[in-house]
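Hi F.,

I've been meaning to write this up properly since the lab meeting, where we talked about keeping a consistent format for the predictions we share between groups. The idea is simple: the sequence comes first, exactly as it goes in, then the structure tokens exactly as they come out, then a line or two of notes. No screenshots and no reformatting. I'm using this chain as the first example so we have something concrete to point to.
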Amino acid sequence: MQTRFSLFLQALLVGIVASACPGGALAQTVGLEEVVMSAGTSAPGVRREDESVRRAEGQAQQARGAFDWTLSGESGWERLYVPGTQNGFLTNDTATVDTWRTTLGATRLFRNGIAIQPGMTFFYGTDATVGQTLGLTRSRPALNVTIPLMRGFGSDNLSASNEKAAIAALEGSRYSRDFAGQRAVAEAVIIYWRCVAARDQLAISEVDRRLADENLVIVRNALAAGQTDQTMLDRSSASQATTQVIYARSIASDRLCREDLAVAMGTNSEAPPAAVVGALLDPAPMSDQVMRLNEAALVQVALSRRTDLQALARFDAAQHERVAGAQDNLQPRVDIFLDPTRALVRLSQPLGRNVAEGQIADAMAAQNEARLNLQQLQGQIRRDVGEQVRNLRDAWSAATALAEAAMRLDVVVTDAERRFQAGFLTRAEYRIMQDEFAGIRRQHIDARLQFASSLAALRLATGAIGTGDGSPGSAPAALFRSLPN
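Output, unedited:
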């Protein structure tokens, strides 16, 4: 059997949702399903990560561009110097021949470090024969093959390493974006549960305020009729003032929470914040699952599933590639150059190695930082999983005990109501029991809120939010109503 307090409280929840919109109009409502769907794609943090992925895609495209074919060409006037002739014989003098030279070609660097530059050069616009110009105006094909023997040779050359690093960084950015979506969903769900709890607390405060108002009116009438004393009126006035303050704070908490939820969902900030619908989780049916939670197994699941951990692993791989490219630059450049008319060996080596050594120091420091971040996150994951498992169990224990206490006190308040109406209890004694019942219900709501929040945090800690097609937005709301296996 429920007291009038309990029945009134249930009916008042409907009224709070309906009156959440200014002017008394029916408010827009939002449930857990809408929160999960919207937060995974529209939250501000997710949109920022989307831009990070686009930037990484652009950087990878730039790195791939080092291996694109590049067309080139030049055309213009050129003056050639050829041996002079007199009466059909060569002389010690030189003559000039004006011609128009055009060169067309293409350049390509391959990922193994070999570069080619095939092309063709044409001469025209002169009356001199090829023989007269000693072959200088003959059309000439070019191959221009450069084969590195030391620096730039193999897949660890600077350009290839930069490309591999950019691809690894892009993969890491995508993993980071995936986890940002999971984090946004978990944070929005936690705010949603907080809003459900704030709504329920507001309902209790509203009932308590109305009861305190009614009690103050009755005590004032009793004092006027000489049936009580001034002390009782003072106590009732103080109690009414306290409940009014609590009620005002509950209204503010409910409004601020709904505004926070709108931000977390990425919805239009100019629209009135939606009223939440739904109920807090009941931990009682999950007792067996709570007790069976295996912290060590959940840690292993988290380490294999967390996409932010995979992101750091890819960032570490990217820095490893940059180190390899920087180390390649320490070697001297020794190249073989091949062309249809010549074969050369080219050698170059800076007298100082400041550039190469500086690049290595920078790349190695970045790699060490990435590895430290990876190790730190692995330790943090272990701590987070353990903490959330403990919080979940503590919240389950508290919620179970408070649910039992609330049920027993409900019976006591029901009996006290009959005794008060029969004249066996004073109004002050009855009000004390009502206050105790309201206090227990508030604590029970807080414990259920802690349970639901810890469950969402555990889902995030184990990386168990992304499902379905792999995108966080597809994560079903059922994940936040059940414990991980």
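Notes:
The two ends are 37 Å apart (CA to CA).
Residues 11-26, 467-474 have pLDDT under 50 and may be disordered.

If this format works for you, I'll send the rest the same way.

G.
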